[in-house]
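Example record

One chain of 161 residues, shown exactly as stored in the release files.
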Amino acid sequence: MDGLIKIGDLAARTGVSVRSVRYYEEQGLLRSRRTPSGHRHYTEDDVERVRFLQDLFAAGLSSRAIREVLPCAEAPNDDNTEESYRVLVRERDQLDRRITELQRARAALDRMAAANRAYLERDRTAPDRECFAPELSRRAVAGALREVGGRPVRDVAGNIA
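Predicted structure tokens for this chain:
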């Protein structure tokens, strides 16, 4: 199997882990040639393919979306180019929604930080106040964080806030 690259060498040349290379193969994004003993080997073209896959992952695409756009990258035609366009627009729209959620979370954190700072700078002779503004009650904070993370927020005792 001259000219073929072992999995560790492919990983080293592309800056990914061996585990990532295996994942790409499991997801149908990369194919290896197997020796009779089952060892994976790759070609020089696979070095570029892994780099391309990394670019797609860095752009925020999931392995499912990458699988959907690969036919266009491998052998473009009108049909797979149109499908690839739809997938890329769908992924961009999902990214836009995530950005909106993150901006909302950032604004909530800014409000909490400002209220916290105001508490620290309070008039020490005034009655004690909460370190968060009233509109940032525990439930409101938990709700904002839940919106962003999609999972329950727990307090220090482990209870759902």
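Notes: The domain at 1-58 is CATH 1.10.1660.10 (Multidrug-efflux Transporter Regulator; Chain: A; Domain 2).
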